[in-house]
Amino acid sequence: MEFIKAYWEQQGSAHQSSHLASWGDRYAIELEIETISRFIKGGDRVLDIGCANGFSTFRQHEINRAARYTGVDYANSMIEHPQRSLLEKRLPPDEIRFEVASILALPFSDAAFDVAYTTRVLINLPTWEDQQRAILESLRVVRPSGTLVISEGFWEPLCLLNSLRLLFRLEPLVEHDFNRYLKKAKLEAWLRELNMAFEVEEFSSFIISEVASCVSSFRRRSGLGAIIRTQLTSFSTRLSSNTPEAGRACNKRM
Ligand SMILES: C[S@@+](CC[C@H](N)C(=O)[O-])C[C@H]1O[C@@H](n2cnc3c(N)ncnc32)[C@H](O)[C@@H]1O
Questions:
Q1: Which residues neighbour 36 within 8 Å (Cβ) at sequence distance 6 or greater?
Q2: 124-146: per-residue pLDDT in tens?
Q3: Nearest CA to ligand 1 atom 13
Q4: Is the pTM of this model over 0.70?
Q5: 236 partner at 20 to 30 Å CA-CA among 32, 102, 154, 189?
Q6: Which domains does the chain have, with CATH numbers?
Q7: Is residue 25 lining ligand 1, measured as CB closer than 6 Å?
Q8: How far apart are CA 107 and CA 242, in angstroms?
Q9: Probe residue for ligand 1, chosen from 15, 22, 233 as the CB with the greatest number of ligand atoms within 8 Å
């Protein structure tokens, strides 16, 4: 786990306030921001878990200033930048604030937030058991009937994308060496076991410009434009935490 944290510390130092600290695909990041913003209402207390340098947290704040935002990340170097920006922008701390914390031990009381979200954070945890612990810890801090949005890398859409790449004789994409993509089917089965209400929303990104350009030339030649819609790279799962007891019971079993 230490070398993963060291990687993110180095990303925070190297990229400061740029979106590159977390990911190069600006288009997909905007898609995530837009998707998640739909779950935030005025007055909501919102927690961005694994917020990196706060790039997305600040964007959510711009979109909906009537909500209150807290961003946490376990890398000190990531959190230094938004804390400095807060002072420069003179934003009031009751509107938006940042602190260092791990998703596995969030320093907040039960039900402290209306909405919490992770974007590409759980995939940094080395095992499915750690990912389950992180989800339960995130649910703990969301109020009953609140919302947890999980927007992560998933295995099944990656397989689908690689099938598409194979059609164009492109090399398959692989996870970053320390990432553990979630298995959509496994997550859904576990959530059902917990008796947790959830919705799945899939969204696409033309993250791989090579594929996008191949698809468009394919379209020009054959007119099979619909194939683009099968290129899923990511999906978000929205959990409604109306059964926190179920989460706690499962926590004990693990
Ligand atoms: C791929 S970046 C995503 C950042 C941000 N959520 C976004 O959408 O731009 C992953 C972030 O998760 C953070 N992270 C990884 N493991 C974590 C943990 N156990 N607790 C808190 N943050 C973690 C990393 O430091 C990094 O900033």
A1: 56, 60, 117, 119, 149, 151, 236
A2: 999 999 999 999 999 999 998 88
A3: 50
A4: yes
A5: 102
A6: 2-153+175-204+236-253 (3.40.50.150)
A7: no
A8: 21
A9: 22
